[in-house]
Amino acid sequence: METMKAIIKAVPGPGASLANVEVPKVGPKEVLVKIKAIGICGTDVHIYTWDEWASHRIKPPRIFGHEFVGEVVEVGKDVTLVKPGDYVSAETHIACGKCYYCRTGNAHICENVKILGVDVDGAYAEYIAIPEENAWKTDRSIPPEVAAIQEPFGNAVHATLIEDITAKSVAVFGLGPIGLMSVAIAKAAGASKIFAVEPSDYRRSFAEKMGADFVINPNETDPISYILDHTSGLGVDVVLEMSGSEAALKAGLRVLKKGGVASLLGIPSKPVTIDITENVIFKYLRLYGINGRLMFRTWYQVQELLASKRVDLTPIITHRMKLEQFDEAMKLLIDKQAVKIVLYPE
Questions:
Q1: What is the pLDDT of residue 269?
Q2: Distance CA 107, CA 98 (A)
Q3: Nearest CA to 342 among 44, 11, 3, 5?
Q4: Are residues 143 and 312 in contact, defined by beta-carbon separation less than 8 angstroms?
Q5: Overall fold of domain 156-289
Q6: Whole-Å CA distances, 219 to 11, 178, 248, 335
């Protein structure tokens, strides 16, 4: 029996453990990928800390993690889309292909979806088995540490480019990894002004590097007054809410120009209350709830932005660590002393 090292949520509760487990066997339509680099996602932090969401969703034992890139080393007998030697990342939503949403071009919100590293074993390991449909052949010009984080970058691409933003003003609330990615995408797409709002000094320090024109600390400056003052009182054309903060959502709707558009990707920890009448209906707004990426339209956009170097994600990859340093990496993220961490299995 061939074994590999993996990070496992072995039992309910905080933390995770490094273990030797069996290398996964591939089914007829699956591929085995030898992992080269792995990104740590906020979802993984929830699983590691074992918050309320994780305790209800995760069924240990589970290898978690879902952002990765690697090389195909084995394919099932019925696989036709990829071959050994292909450089691949993965769409992490495993769709059923049969439900109403899958059959109407919305597989990213499949009603029977399974998610890598959440519902099935994931990427914190030396090898991973994935359905061939989920393997995304990646341009080898994209380095592993960047190729490994294409999946969350896809969330940012979907949220930012859901409508045309060229020559439009944009406000990004929340500068976690996806918020910072969105700043860079807006810049590459030709946004006229980019406002970036974030209370963390550490995260805010990356905003200008990624292309923000105005960087706002909401603990010191009222973002509503500031943005309205810098947009002739009209507000911005586009708001990207990436924080999940109720205060940020309310501020975002206030600074959105009448007829504007908001992409809501941040997930609040509890229900929020907003003035729908004054701040949505009477303002004639369009609100988009962002869940994952369009399969696979967004992936083509991701690859073009990265391979063309229109967007450079390396400034936000703040740490590169070994898989065995997993606990140290998690502590950095929990303490907000890192933006994006990439792990290497070997």
A1: 86
A2: 9
A3: 44
A4: no
A5: Rossmann fold (3.40.50)
A6: 39, 21, 12, 19
Residues 112 and 99: their CA atoms lie apart, in Å, by 8
Query: In this structure, are residues 47 and 9 in contact, taking their beta carbons and an 8 Å threshold?
Result: yes
Chain CA centroid to CA 308, Å: 20
Query: Could you report the per-residue pLDDT of 227-260, keeping only the tens digit for each?
Result: 999 999 999 999 999 999 999 999 999 999 999 9
CATH classification (class only), 3-149+313-344: alpha beta
pLDDT digits (tens, 9 = 90+) for 125-171: 999 999 999 999 999 999 999 999 999 999 999 999 999 999 999 99
Q: Is 93 a catalytic residue?
A: no
Classify residue 24 by its DSSP letter: P
Query: Residue 71 carries which side chain, given as an amino acid letter?
Result: E
Q: pLDDT for 104-131, tens place per residue?
A: 999 999 999 999 999 999 999 999 999 9
| Cα gap 213→206, rounded to integer Å | 12
- Closest Cα partner for 43 from 101, 133, 123? 123
Strand boundaries in 158-266, DSSP class E = 169-173, 193-197, 214-216, 236-241, 256-264
What is the pLDDT confidence band of residue 1, given thresholds at 50, 70 and 90? Answer: confident
**Average confidence (pLDDT) over 178-183:** 98
Judge if 3-149+313-344 and 156-289 fold alike in CATH terms: no
Residue 238 and residue 255: Cα distance in Å, rounded?
9
248-292 residue pLDDT tens: 999 999 999 999 999 999 999 899 999 999 999 999 999 999 999
Total-model pTM: 0.96
With bands split at pLDDT 50, 70 and 90, how would you rate the model's confidence at 210? very high
Burial class of 63 by CB neighbour count within 10 A (0 to 12, 13 to 18, 19+): buried
> How do the domains of the chain map onto residue ranges?
3-149+313-344, 156-289
**Listed residue (217, 126, 184) closest to 340, CA to CA:** 184
Active site residue 46: yes
